[in-house]
Design a protein that fits this description.
Protein name: Membrane protein
Structural class: mainly beta
Helix content: under 10%
Distance between the termini: 9 Å
Mean pLDDT: 76
Number of helices: 5
Strand content: over 45%
Low-confidence stretches: 1-71
Strand order of the largest sheet: 1-14-13-12-11-10-9-8-7-6-5-4
Organism: Vibrio maritimus
Number of strands: 14
Length: 319
């Protein structure tokens, strides 16, 4: 089993033009959930001030946490900016009586494999905050398309009920993306002649249900089905045809148990607390008729920088 260990400690020194009570302050946490597509899409109010940061992020698989470290007292200039970005729904305060509170943001991204692309991030908040221990449920839809024909959409829903004692997460990804393959193992990855370009068609569905067992400890289970189909394989080195044969259609499905210790003050927009999560699953590879186990471990923590405004966050992941 391929094991990966990721550690990310990152922060951005940016100006924040939104009051924390306003709708747009929750956007950065949603962005983090979708960062494999757009790793540095900023807060609604600072999108155009940090446009270059979007273009610098070249890897669609990277994950970053966008942290607001310094607040800025609104003035006439920022008020005008707020008014302009209000077209996208940034100015609305959350109103449970409204039903679905919507906001959206267009974005530009670039990756070596996908080229220049356009996307849209739609965020919808709904439900009584008391059902989620002070936080509303959320829905995020993220379609995108790029210059080389890559296209995809992701859907993420975090639903809270019973005063936050129960949670249902639903994640769906459907995309047809440009990808690169060099073969298995480190040595193959260092050989430029092994490069194979192909289109990767993926459907990935993952629902999870959690219930509070005691205090901040949650226990639950979920399922995952994933289908991968490589298409349009091309390579310059004809001796790499055997590597192209390794790219075959594959479908896997399975179930997992999720153990979560969560002291965060807000799941989608944490300002303090700790998250420890361990998922253990049993899967079946339908293509090769094989069973395999899979684990995923994640730890993250949020620290206030008081008396300086802002926070510092770190995260470690292992799969």
């Amino acid at each position: 089993m391929i094991r990966k260990l990721q550690m990310k400690i990152c922060s951005f020194f940016t100006f924040e033009y939104a009051h924390l009570s306003r709708f747009s302050s929750i956007i950065p946490a949603f962005i983090n959930d979708l960062s494999y597509l757009y790793p540095c899409i900023p807060n609604l109010r600072t999108l155009y001030l940090r446009w270059a940061a979007v273009l610098v992020c070249l890897s669609p698989q990277s994950q970053m946490i966008i942290l607001t470290l310094f607040e800025h007292t609104p003035n006439s200039t920022t008020d005008k900016l707020d008014s302009f970005l209000g077209v996208f729904g940034a100015e609305s305060e959350y109103d449970k009586e409204k039903g679905l509170n919507s906001s959206y943001i267009p974005a530009v991204f670039y990756t070596p494999e996908q080229g220049l692309g356009l996307g849209l991030l739609y965020v919808g908040l709904y439900g009584d905050p008391s059902d989620g221990a002070g936080q509303p449920s959320s829905m995020v839809i993220n379609p995108y398309a790029s210059s080389n024909g890559s296209i995809g959409i992701t859907f993420s829903n975090k639903h809270f009920y019973n005063g936050g004692d129960n949670r249902v997460y639903t994640d769906i990804k459907v995309f047809d993306d440009a990808a690169v393959y060099y073969g298995q193992g480190y040595e193959n990855g260092q050989q430029d002649g092994n490069k194979i370009n192909f289109k990767e068609q993926v459907v990935d569905i993952k629902p999870t249900w959690l219930t509070r067992v005691s205090g901040d400890y949650f226990l639950g289970f979920g399922g995952n089905i994933k289908s991968v189909r490589p298409q349009d394989k091309t390579f310059e080195n004809q001796n790499s045809d055997y590597l192209a044969d390794e790219l075959t259609d594959n479908t896997s499905y399975g179930v997992f148990v999720s153990n979560v210790f969560d002291t965060r003050d807000n799941v989608t927009n944490a300002t303090k607390g700790t998250l420890l999560q361990a998922d253990l699953g049993l899967y079946h590879d339908a293509t090769n008729s094989e069973n395999f186990g899979k684990y995923s471990i994640k730890a993250s923590q949020y620290h206030s920088l008081a008396p300086v405004p802002g926070l510092l966050a770190w995260q470690v992941q292992a799969t």
